[in-house]
Amino acid sequence: MEKLIEIARSFGQKIQFKAYEPIEFFCSAKEECEEKDMESTAKKLIHFCKTMVAADIHVYLEAHPEVQYKEEIIDALTGENFTKPIQRSVEQNNYEKNTEYENN
């Protein structure tokens, strides 16, 4: 019998809906497997964590109808972009739209 190895993976996603009010969603999972199954187990665990984080974010968005940019956030939860940070703040977005930057 092969030696069992414990594989642990975690995934977190922080979303900033308002200035200074980030919300972090996090999942961690671990499993023991044989050495030959390490790679497939690691992939399975990270997929599980990402799926759970995405589900939690969807639940949060459904419970908070006041959140703007829902479509943008949901789009960011799918595909390869899911590993990139989701940062959208109403105040930040309005500031960026209404501010001209000058090079001194």
Care to describe what's here?
The protein has a three-stranded mixed β-sheet. Helices cover 40% and strands 30% of the residues. By secondary structure, it is an alpha+beta fold.
What best-fitting shape do the alpha-carbon axes yield? elongated
Q: What oligomeric state do the depicted chains represent? A: single chain
Measured by DSSP, the beta-strand proportion falls in 25-35%
The span between the termini is 69 Å
N to C succession of SSEs: EEHHEH
Helical run tally: 3
Q: Specify Rg, calculated over alpha carbons.
A: 18 Å
Structural class: alpha+beta
Give the overall average pLDDT.
76
Helix content: 40-55%
By DSSP, the count of extended strands is: 3
Q: Which residues sit in consecutive blocks of at least 5 with pLDDT less than 50?
A: 87-104
Main sheet: strand order: 2-1-3
Main beta sheet strand tally, sense and closure: 3 strands, mixed
Can you give keywords for this protein?
single chain, 104 residues, alpha+beta, three-stranded mixed β-sheet, 40% helix, elongated, disordered C terminus
Task: Provide a brief overview of the structure.
The protein has helices at 38-63, 70-76, 90-98, and strands at 4-18, 21-34, 86-87.
Question: How do the helices and strands line up, and which of them pair or pack?
Answer:
Elements: E1 4-18, E2 21-34, H1 38-63, H2 70-76, E3 86-87, H3 90-98
Parallel strand pairs: 1-3
Antiparallel strand pairs: 1-2
